[in-house]
Replication initiation protein (Phocaeicola plebeius), 505 residues
Amino acid sequence: MKKNYEEIFTSEKITVLSNKKNDSRIMNLTCPIYQTNFLTDARQILNKGTYRAIKFIVKQIQDERIMLESYIKNNETLKINISREDILRWYPDEHAHRELKAAAEWLNNTDVKYETPTGWVMAKLVGEVSYDINTGMTIYITPGVLPLYYVVNKHFTMLDFAVTMSIQDKATQFFYDKCCKWRSAGIFSYTPLELAEAINVSPITNLLKTRYILSADREMKKLFQEGLIDFYFDTYELRSGKGRGGKLDKFIFRIQDCLPGTEKDYQEQAHMRTFIIETIKSTVPSLVSDDIFRQLKELSRTELKDLCSEMSIFKNELRENKIKDARGILWFKLRNRYNINPNGAERLKKNPQNEYPKFKKISEEIHAKSQDDAASKEEQYTQATLPFEDDKPSWWSYWSDTINDIISNYRVGDREINEVEKKTLSYMFNEKDKFSPQYDGEELRIQIEPNIYKNYVAQPFSPLYDGLHQAIKDSTFKFFPNLKKLSYAVSDYGGKLTIFPIKEL
């Protein structure tokens, strides 16, 4: 190791050495430069100002539509001019030049070293940087590090930049990046030691919770409320053992993209229940019943998401022929883990040996902007019936499940519909003036806007809607309990309703 330098970070792609005496760094790339995104691979060693400055440079590259490939190919130094007006737009503080100067010093004091197929390269993350109070900032980037900016540029979005410029805390930036990475999974976790190492702080549990986790929790929920980001996270502790609370094993972070109790939340839960039912139905049809569907509605928001994730994994493993006893595995998951009784109407009593893990929520609650939007306590979701907004009847979840079932299984001929077509159907069904259902326990009457009925249901103008009428019939009788009669109601221009009986049992 180089004299006076100590290792401060290492990963599969990057090793960083630091000299505290002169505040310089050496970044050794241990894989091909085009496979390295130093913004994410070495994120924890970047302070907030440096991180923002790099994004600011990349934004300017995009704004000026600079083709980095040509500079790299021709081995040319890139010169970037950032006007004072643009700086003041994103750095409204009159002392912004201090943050930019500190970031420029950090980047200029960081050497990058890596091997090439025919030799090696040594360069600085930025070369010469100058600032003038009247004209702005000029930055030179040498060809040796341009590939790093090229990789960042490929993954750059304006929304991501706006969030980066708004985030105040380093811990928030860390959790924002992790939520982006794990959003499709909906969950990620760290042991206290892993989390401390990831954000390069002391592994003291209380400090992790108060200074870093809850600080990021508050800021991300504030950004969510302001509409700048469309997700946030809730934090849970997973504990084991006896004593006062037991031993903290892990922090569990659940990514949420809607408030509990909103229409979007109901739609998501309905979609998950539909997916679970369809997975069971396609594997072991004999296990599907109205009783199972009713018990699924008793699951909490957290349990439902976890069961949906398990079903997704189960479905993939089944497709890859990794499962021999599909019925046995489904039976075990439903009974022993989620206390769902495939043979009965009521959920089973919890078995302590197989009980669903106990998560203690430590995250702050997020409140809707108005009382009409949502209730904020997740505990409300442990009740048998989900709470609905004031203008929604108690049976509305049946309609939500019906819509999700139609969209999920809709086909045009032999092909499945694409995402754009799914969004079109979803928009149409969720507009009150287009489809408005009324249910009295035995009869479902769907009032349909006249033009929609004529051109989409009765006489479809496009092949996309040829199967719409049949899909409505099939799905409504699947999800509305005790449904005996289905009819459409269509008004004429004078407002008079005409009733069209569709199906009666």
Observations:
- The longest strand covers residues 247-256.
- The chain has four domains: 6-165, 170-256, 263-362, 407-504.
- The two ends are 81 Å apart (CA to CA).
- Residues 58 and 131 are 18 Å apart (CA to CA).
